[in-house]
Amino acid sequence: MTQDELKTLVGQAAVKYVVKGEIVGVGTGSTVNKFIDALAAIKNDIKGAVSSSVASTERLKALGIPVFDANEVSSLSVYIDGADEIDHAGYMVKGGGAALTREKIVASLSKQFVCIADESKLVKTLGAFPLPVEVIPMAATRIAALFAAKGGVAKLRMKDGLPLVTDNGQHILDVTGLQISNPLAFESEVNQWPGVITVGVFAHQKAQVCLLGTSSGVKTLEF
Q1: What domains are there in the chain, each with its CATH number?
Q2: Is the alpha carbon torsion for 163, 127, 194, 82 positive or negative?
Q3: Helices 30-39 and 54-62: crossing angle, nearest 10°?
Q4: φ and ψ at 214, to 5 degrees?
Q5: CB 90 within 8 A of CB 223
C-alpha cells in the first residue's frame, strides 16, 4: 500500500470513535483530511466540529459540516488528529502543519485523543522528526540559543522566501538534533521559556489511542 492509501485507511477507521449527536474535535494535516472526507458521510449524525486550523475549517465547511468556535464548547468527547511522530507511550511530536498551538487547545478540551498515522510515524524515542516550536518573532534568536545549549539546531521555517506566519500570527522554529527521552519534563521546561507560544511535544495532551496504518491493515494501539 502507498502512504496515501494507509492515510485513507486510518482516516476511515477513526470515524467509529465519533460520538453521534456530539461535536467532534478535528485536527490538521494530510491524514486528517482523509478523516474529514470520511466524516462527511455521517455529517447528519453529528452536531459539527471544532477545528484546529483555518485549513481544516475550510475543508469541513466545504463538505457541509458546521464548525464551532472552541469558546462555544465546554468539552469534547474525542479529538482526532495526526502526528509527525508517536512513541510507544502515546507521546507525540506535532506541528509539521504549523497548527500545533490550536491543536493543543482542542486536545485540551477533549476527553480522548485518537491519533491517526501510518506506521512510519511510530518511533522508540521522539526527536527524529524536526521539533516545531511556535514562537513570538522577537524571541526566535534567544530560543534558538537555548536549544543550541541542548544540542539542537533551530531553523526558522520559511515559506515563499519569507518566515512562515501561523494562523496565530507567529513564527515556527524547527529544531533538529534532539533526543527527547522524557517528553513530559521536556515539554514543561520549554513551555516556560519566554517567547515560546507552544512546543510541539504533546505529552500533557498525549494520545490514548493510535490507529496505525500498516501493510496488513489498521493496527490499534492503546496507551
Answers
A1: 3-123+204-222 (3.40.50.1360), 131-199 (3.30.70.260)
A2: positive
A3: 30
A4: -125, 170
A5: yes
Distances (CA, A) of 85 to 66, 91, 145, 150: 30, 8, 24, 20
Element (H, E) at 173: strand 171-176
Q: Render the burial of 28-48: b for 16+ CB within 10 Å, e for the rest.
A: bbebbbbbbebbeeeeeebeb
In DSSP notation, 64-132 reads: T--EE-GGG-S-BS-EEE--SEE-TTS-EE--TTS-HHHHHHHHHHBS-EEEEEEGGGB-SSBTSSPEE
pTM for the complete prediction?
0.95
Distances (CA, A) of 185 to 106, 180, 188: 22, 9, 5
Q: Is 134 a catalytic residue?
A: no
Q: Are 54 and 167 in contact (CB under 8 A)?
A: yes
Q: Please identify which of the residues 5, 22, 85, 103 carries the catalytic annotation.
A: 103
Task: Note whether 132 and 174 are within 8 A (CB).
Answer: yes
Instruction: Judge whether 102 and 205 are in contact, CB under 8 Å.
Output: no
Q: Identify the bridge partners of residue 133 per DSSP, sorted by sequence position.
A: 173, 199
Q: What is the pLDDT of residues 77-133, one digit of tens each?
A: 999 999 999 999 999 999 999 999 999 999 999 999 999 999 999 999 999 999 999
